[in-house]
Amino acid sequence: MLNAWTLFFASDNPFLNVERLTQPVLHTTITMNSKSIYATPSELSTLYKIECFLGSGGFGSVFTANRIRDNSLVVMKIVNEEEERRSGDNDTPHEAVLLKLAASVPGVPKLLDYRMIECGYALITEPFGFDPDNRDEGLSNVTDLYDYVKDKNGLKEAEAAELFKAFVDIIVDLTHANVLHRDLKPENCLLDLKTRRLALIDFGVATIRTSGFYHSFQGTTCFGCPPEMYSKKKYTAEGQNVWSLGCFLYSLVFIDPPFESPLGIIAGKPQFGRKRLSSAFKNLVSGCLQKNPEKRLTLAQVHGHQWMTQFDEHPNACIGC
């Protein structure tokens, strides 16, 4: 009888037929508690047993798995990867390096292990939103933020402020860890429906945060590519982060991002339609989406913006009045 691993590594598995992406090499190494980071499918199956398929993206697939040595639930991401996206020693996946750097950030699931496999690598992380005392529930209380917002047909300002404030806290902590995610969007944010905690996932296009310029962009264009990348072929970590946060916030209320094309991004004029929205909300979104990066809000200004704090002081405030 074929097990899940045999089926997954079959040559005709559609989850292994994904677009490849190159990224600058990181000359950083990390050490995991394992004798060897290389594993064949059969060796990997002695360590982890795949349980449920959670989803797939442009570069891999995600599952829940059982760690056999202690019967604990973990999340496994299997990525089809090129050597160019390894760290300087060619043994450490780029994404593992970034997750290790972000280990102190509360809103980022902790990296537990990684294994190099023939098609790329497997990342094993803690399961966000999992209660060991209620294992039968699994991750049923966790959803991605896009589905949550879509089901609600867009969020009211008070709830959007609650979630956006928590999300910005994660980005501030990530900045202190010198990590630039570059793909901030609701699909990459998990929400625990019980605790209301958020988690940022998918560091596949993340990079080391520097004070200089970046000259290439990897990520979801309509959520993360700032207009200066089109006009000047460069951007800064701060400028890209804040632009992306503006797109993220807009989509919490309107579901879709503010711009769908490069021309819209370059124009940098978000449309608010007929929704009854506060002037503070519009001010924050417009400040994040200022097409001139020198006039754009800073991350500190976003973090301390009055739109988020007004609901702490007046939770029943009349939105749009």
Short description, anyone?
With 321 residues, the chain is α+β, with helices and mostly antiparallel strands. Helices cover 31% and strands 18% of the residues.
Record keyword descriptors for this entry.
Transferase(Phosphotransferase), domain 1, 31% helix, 321 residues, Phosphorylase Kinase, domain 1, alpha+beta, 12 helices, five-stranded antiparallel β-sheet, three-stranded antiparallel β-sheet, globular
Structural write-up:
The chain is α+β, with helices and mostly antiparallel strands and 321 residues long. The protein folds into two domains: 4-125, Phosphorylase Kinase, domain 1; 142-313, Transferase(Phosphotransferase) domain 1 (Transferase(Phosphotransferase), domain 1). 31% of the residues lie in helices and 18% in strands. The strands form four sheets. Strands 1-2-3-5-4 form a five-stranded antiparallel β-sheet. Strand 8 and strand 9 form a beta hairpin. Helix 5 (157-176) packs across helix 12 (306-313). The longest helix has 20 residues, at 157-176.
Please outline the major beta sheet. 5 strands, antiparallel
Low-confidence stretches: 1-35
What's the overall average pLDDT, rounded?
A: 85
**Rough outline:** globular
What series of H and E elements makes up the topology?
A: HHEEEHEEEHHEEEEEHHEHHHHH
Distance between the termini: 64 Å
Number of domains: 2
Instruction: Name the structural class.
Output: alpha+beta
* CATH homologous superfamily heading of the largest domain: Transferase(Phosphotransferase) domain 1
Q: Supply the CATH class of the largest domain.
A: Mainly Alpha
Instruction: Name the beta content range.
Output: 15-25%
Counting DSSP H or I runs of 4 or more residues, the number of helices is 12
Radius of gyration: 20 Å
In the CATH hierarchy, the architecture of the largest domain is: Orthogonal Bundle
CATH fold name of the largest domain: Transferase(Phosphotransferase), domain 1
Helix percentage range: 25-40%
Number of beta-strand segments: 12
